Structures are given as C-alpha cells and as structure tokens.
Give the backbone structure.
Amino acid sequence: MKTIHTNAKHTKWLSADEMHFESKKWLSELEFCKEEQWFFEDLIRSYTLQILDNNHFEESKRLIDKLTKIVEQTETLINAVKSHEKELSIMVDGIDQIKEETAYKKEHRNLTELVEEFRKRYRTTKAKLFNLIKMVMKEGKQNRLLDKK
C-alpha cells in the first residue's frame, strides 16, 4: 500500500482520547468494509457465469483484481490500527517521552491519511462493482424476457 505524505503547514493536535476515539472509529469502519467485501465476493460468485458470458469480462477481471487488493489492504490497515491502538499507552502513562509521543502522533497522522485514501479507493471500487452487477442483472432479465417470446 502506498503511503501518502502531505506537508501540512498546520496540524490539529489531538488528545489521547481523541486519537483513541478516531482509532476505534477506523477499526469499526474497516471491519464493516470487511463484511461488505464478503458480500461482494458472494455476489460475484452468484453471477460468475453471467459475468464470464458477457462482454464485461475484461472490466470484471479488473474490478475483481481491485477487490482482491482492497481485501488485502483492509486487513493490513486493520492490523496497523490495532497495533497503533495498543501503543496509545505511551500517550497516557504520565511519563514525559517527547520523542516517542511525537513519533506516535506522526504515525497517527500517517494513518489518518492512509485511511482516508483507502476510503476513497474503496468507495470508487464499490460503486463500480455495484454498477457492473446491476448491468449484468438487467441483461439477464432482458434475456429471460426475450427467451419467453
């Protein structure tokens, strides 16, 4: 997964509670994405013959490859966020560890960027998958109607 670095001139300094809340929110969203991905895989399996039989094979293959990468990225991000969350104690242990605390905050900002980029890619891929399946379903319906005539 590609890391995106921005050179923000100002950054919002979050408290340990805010970083904890944000990390929990990321985990919740990522776990939901994982559930959705299982649904997409089932949906693709259900329409495999129509996808292969249609003129959509190349597009389908690209989308399925993207979905496979996104599944891997989701798992990587979940593990990164869980690891990050476990290290939160450095922020609340009452010991001044400026270097470690600064590194933790930097990691949190990087995760913020990674999660946001992931969200954008995921939304785009999800929309394309739904459109593909919707098109395949419509074509299947039209073919059934034509076969009845």
Remarks:
- The first helix runs from residue 16 to 46.
